[in-house]
From TrEMBL:
Name the UniProt record assigns to this protein: Plasmid maintenance protein CcdA
Keyword terms, alphabetized: Toxin-antitoxin system
Organism: Candidatus Pantoea communis
Length: 72
């Protein structure tokens, strides 16, 4: 869902982008989406750090299931 928000930007940059045909709304939306993705990825890693460490330790100690079944 899209909605209106107010963002303060350097006016000369805004005018420059508009004069060069850049869709500032799309540019802003893309930037926001990238930042959201980055923050969610960082949160996931932090929330699952202990579990990932356990899996890594288990794999280091016992190997992985697929190691026994590889044919290459």
């Amino acid at each position: 869902m899209k909605g209106k928000v107010s963002v303060n930007v350097e006016i000369s940059n805004h005018k420059f982008l508009l004069n060069h045909g850049v869709n500032v709304s799309a540019l802003t939306d893309t930037f926001f989406a990238e930042e959201v993705k980055k923050i969610k990825r960082e949160q996931f890693i932090e929330e699952n750090r202990a579990g990932m460490a356990e899996i890594a330790a288990h794999t280091e100690k016992y190997g992985s299931f697929s190691d026994k079944h590889r044919s290459w």
